[in-house]
Amino acid sequence: MSDELVPVEEQIASFKRAIEAVVMVSHDPVPTDLLAQLLEQPVALVEQWCEQLAAEYVEQQRGFELRRVAGGFRFQTHPDQTPYVERFVLHDQKARLSGAALETLAIVAYKQPISRAQVASIRGVDPDGVIRTLQARGYIDEVGRDDGPGQAVLFGTTPMFLEKLGLDTIDDLPPIAEFIPDADVVEALEHGLRVSPIEPVDTSSAPDTSTDTMTGTMTGTEPVGSHDADSYEQPSDPSSDESSDRLSDQEWGGSDDGTSD
User: Fold this and answer.
1) CA angle 224, 225, 228 (to 5 degrees)
2) Residues of the chain with CATH 1.10.10.10
């Protein structure tokens, strides 16, 4: 007895149910190549079925959706259900990350790869403790080293970061153009991160103080003969000083012995 042929539509429906089951029990996003291996079907077909499932959930206005996240597919709540999900998740619970940690994580996400010194320059405080916390949570990790002096460690986000935010790639981050400071403020911040080369001193505009060999005077200075005649003093003559002293004695009528006529 020959086996009955299963209609193609029923086969596709069975594969879609298998995709739903695997994605539902998986903690991490399931890559399409892994789904293709489990179903023993081409990757292109698996991706097509996943897209069809996602479209069906949107058409049916479900409270969840099938999204491509971090290179795979996973189920997540619909964005319009966020207020209710937040009430459930945050009920009697505290925020897991502090404001400083969220600020540092945002800097790393938008400026990666970035070093500790660059993060400190932007935030104005030492980020070592916050960076260690983000590394321990698995949101950031070392992605390389800087080519400059010291070869500082560079940090970037991880697939877990994309998974938590529901993003497929880092390019899906929302733009922050309307929230960043003006261009002059950004330039001032980035200027502090750059190493400026030492510029050579320009001596072409310095005054020339070389000696003129023809006149014997210093060029760039005022000639000696340019002074006023009244301000020029003749050297004193010792003999003239003595004659003036004798004249002074005769005018007063005195003598050297202190007596008068």
Assistant:
1) 105
2) 8-87, 99-191
Residue with tokens 């983000």: 134
Question: Residue 17 is which amino acid?
Answer: R
127: which residues sit within 8 A by CB, 6+ positions away? 104, 116, 119, 120
User: 99-191 adopts what CATH topology?
Assistant: Arc Repressor Mutant, subunit A (1.10.10)
Task: Indicate the CATH number for domain 8-87.
Answer: 1.10.10.10
Residues 6+ apart with CB under 8 A from 76: 64, 65, 67, 69, 166
Residue 163, H or E segment: helix 159-165
Read off the pLDDT of residues 153-201 as tens digits, 9 standing for 90 and up: 999 999 989 888 888 888 888 887 766 667 777 777 777 766 666 666 6
Of 95, 81, 71, 79, residue with least CA distance to 174:
79
Q: For residue range 121-130, list pLDDT tens digits in order.
A: 998 888 888 9
Torsions phi, psi for 182 (to 5 deg): -65, 165
**Which CB contacts under 8 angstroms, 24+ apart, belong to 14-23?**
15/39, 15/41, 15/46, 15/49, 16/49, 16/52, 16/53, 19/46, 19/49, 19/50, 19/53, 19/73, 20/53, 23/66, 23/73, 23/74, 23/75
* CA-to-CA separations, 235 to 152, 224, 241, 246, in angstroms, rounded: 73, 16, 12, 20
Query: What pTM was estimated for this model as a whole?
Result: 0.42
CA–CA distance from 259 to each of 174, 243, 249 (Å)? 113, 20, 12
